[in-house]
Amino acid sequence: MVVALLPNSFSEAAVSRTFFMDHSLLPSKTRATLPVKYEAAKLALAECNRMDECKDWADKAMALASYAKQADDKEMEKTAMRIRARAVRRCGELLKEIEAKHTGRIRGSEAPNFNTRKAAAEQAGLSPDQAKDAIRLANINGESFEQQVESDMPPTITNLAEQGMANGIPRYVQLGMTKKAFQAGMYFGSDLADLAKRTKEFDPQDVVDGSTPKERKELRRNIETIDAYLDKIIAKL
């Protein structure tokens, strides 16, 4: 999304002088180019998705171990979240170079500009909500943004956008919480919501009937652990 707003022939310095002055210079994201390394990464992932090397391995134990490692590896997901967050933030930074209302001129410039921030976002292919989120991410303090994005649990765009609504003050600070408590509530709450949805999808009898004797023992252990944990949470609510 970063380069979706920047044609190849424009430097960032040129953006502030020329980019938004002529609406025709702003390409839609459907026609925008992407960085070479970004395209290469997408092709590599597509190839990895299309071809399963492990299925032809003679050593099935090795194949099983490889599948297990792949299933447990979330690093690509985290990397993708970081790339997306930075791309959304850069969109917001570019949009913020245009005054929000009336003149639509580049900030710090006396030259008239007949494009508005809204028009620039629409021309780039951003929905109103996407444009708002982008600007909110751009409002976050740079150091705070990088710390969160580079953490072991990168925040979602929605979470980051909420922070940006208060001019960069972290959401957990606004709520008077510690960062650790905020993340615990956010991630566990999301997981619990997913579990609640699952309870509406599967009949309890089907869950039991569809489990082996060994799996039933594991189900019981997990349910007992979760039940005890939820009792502690309920006691504190």
Please write the string of helix (H) and strand (E) elements: HHHHHHHHHHHH
SS strand fraction: under 5%
The parts where pLDDT drops under 50 for at least 5 residues are 1-24
Mean pLDDT: 79
Into which percent range does the helicity of residues fall?
A: 55-70%
CA distance, first residue to last residue: 41 Å
Question: Which radius of gyration do the C-alpha atoms yield?
Answer: 24 Å
The total beta strand count reads 0
Number of separate helices: 12
What structural class is derived from the secondary structure elements?
mainly alpha
Largest sheet: none
Overall shape:
extended
How do the helices and strands line up, and which of them pair or pack?
Blueprint: H1 12-19, H2 36-50, H3 60-72, H4 75-95, H5 117-124, H6 128-139, H7 142-149, H8 157-164, H9 171-174, H10 179-201, H11 204-209, H12 213-236
What does this 3D model show about the protein?
With 237 residues, the chain is mainly α. It has a domain at 1-33 and 74-169. Helices cover 63% and strands 0% of the residues. The protein contains twelve helices and no strands. The protein has helices at 12-19, 36-50, 60-72, 75-95, 117-124, 128-139, 142-149, 157-164, 171-174, 179-201, 204-209, 213-236. The longest helix has 24 residues, at 213-236. The protein starts with 11 loop residues before the first helix and ends with a helix.
Keywords:
mainly alpha, disordered N terminus, 237 residues
Would you kindly provide a brief summary of this structure?
This protein has 237 residues and is mainly alpha-helical. It contains 12 helices and no strands. It has a domain at 1-33 and 74-169.
